[in-house]
Design brief:
single chain; about 400 residues; mainly alpha; Growth Hormone, Chain: A; 15 helices; Sugar_transporter_CS; transport
Length: about 400
């Protein structure tokens, strides 16, 4: 009788609240918003702290190091101890990082804050993504689409809000972090009230899986992997160097302009991830990669023209095609990956993504410091376009191979 009562109590407390799913989506959006928070402020850091382009890209790219560490380790940890402890620890780490931004007076403090935020946000993306499946286990594809939309909307809202605060606040390098810290503290209270979503947590020894890919999905993985590398390389440069570049090209000195450029790009990405979710993942990804090639060429032309309207229109196009490319490649990989290999395949996928976000961004920053961002940007756009072309070709040849193999199976 006592055992039955304990089991009933455990099942009752393990049952997620009705608002849990929505809270987890908001949490993911807020976390990714924090990742983009400094983007509209980088031009101020460059001007007031006399930071070079390579310094800005190092500050940006070190985020990927922390996020990569989380992507490779947090899944097994949250399986063993539960999602809630991981989420609580990550939110506390975000608050510590925001505190570092508030008191920062040197570049190394910005780097440390970004490293903390990378680890914390990577942990939230992994643990909250798993928690969404705990809460709604039958909605895997829909969960992926909604989380992608939430991530992009979080960046759009946070960046635009930070830009507005920086534009009209008396202390633009402090007020945005205070506002976001309040929002994170409120979210921490909400997560503390959340029932543990992962009722089947093992409590066993934590085993970190090595990233690997089953041989029968190697071609699919390379299609998705090259796709995420190209897309995230574009994302890295456009969130670090591009804001100052658009200011220089158009003559706009206002921070709100930078916020608008980043916000329309990420909002467009969210909208087209929703649109792409209604179509075949591979086809959506191929269309996105081809569209990214056109949009990258458009970015070079828009900057050369100095037209504000052209820069905004191209930012919308870049966001839309990025949303199709990234969302499609991720949904395709989720569709073909065996259930027992999801953890190690996703680790390998995000390994590619975070490396592509960090390394090309730092290289672009170093070259920009030596030759100027406006000189280097067209070459970066061309290299990224070649990567997108490679992903599109792999997708198209893979599609034809699947068509020819179908009669054999029959």
């Amino acid at each position: 009788m006592a055992t039955a009562a304990v089991e009933d109590h455990q099942s009752a407390t393990a049952r997620p609240q009705r608002w849990a799913f929505g809270l987890l989506l908001v949490l993911m959006g807020l976390a990714f918003g924090v990742s983009g928070l400094p983007s509209p402020l980088y031009p101020i850091y460059q001007q007031e702290w006399h930071l070079s382009a390579v310094s800005i890209t190092v500050v940006f790219a070190v985020y990927a190091v922390g996020a990569l560490a989380s992507a490779l380790t947090v899944g097994p940890i949250s399986d063993a101890v539960g999602r809630k402890p991981v989420l609580v620890a990550a939110l506390i780490a975000i608050l510590v990082g925001l505190g570092l931004f508030l008191i920062a007076t040197a570049e190394w403090e910005l780097i440390l804050a970004r490293l903390l935020h990378g680890a914390a946000i990577g942990a939230i993306v992994v643990a909250a993504g798993a928690a969404l499946l705990d809460v709604r286990p039958a909605g895997g594809a829909r969960n992926g689409m909604l989380s992608g939309i939430a991530l992009n909307l979080g960046v759009a809202v946070t960046v635009l809000g930070a830009a507005a605060a920086a534009q009209w606040a008396s202390n633009p390098l402090r007020i945005p972090y205070i506002v976001v810290a309040v929002a994170v503290a409120i979210m921490l209270v909400a997560v503390l009230a959340l029932a543990e979503p992962h009722a089947a947590r093992t409590g066993a020894r934590i085993r970190i899986q090595r990233p690997s890919v089953p041989s029968d999905i190697t071609a699919d993985f390379w299609f998705s992997g090259i796709g995420v590398m190209s897309a995230w390389a574009v994302l890295g440069v456009f969130l670090s160097l591009y804001p100052a570049l658009t200011q220089h090209a158009t003559g706009h000195e206002s921070i709100i302009f930078v916020g608008i450029v980043v916000a329309v790009m990420t909002a467009s990405s969210a909208a087209f991830q929703w649109v792409g979710g209604r179509f075949d993942p591979r086809s959506s990804a191929i269309a996105g990669h081809i569209g990214l090639i056109v949009s990258l060429i458009g970015a070079v032309l828009a900057l050369h023209s100095g037209s504000t309207v052209c820069v905004i229109i191209d930012a919308i196009a870049l966001g839309a095609t990025f949303g199709l490319a990234f969302g499609g490649s991720l949904r395709h990989l989720n569709r073909v990956t065996p259930a027992d290999a999801r953890g190690r395949v996703m680790s390998a996928y995000y390994l590619f993504g975070y490396l592509a976000m960090g390394i090309p961004t730092v290289i672009a920053g170093a070259l920009s410091s030596a030759f100027g961002t406006s000189t280097v940007f067209p070459y970066f756009a061309g290299a990224a376009a070649l990567g997108c072309l490679g992903a599109a070709v792999l997708g198209l040849t893979g599609s034809r191979r699947r068509v020819t193999e179908t009669p054999v199976d029959l």
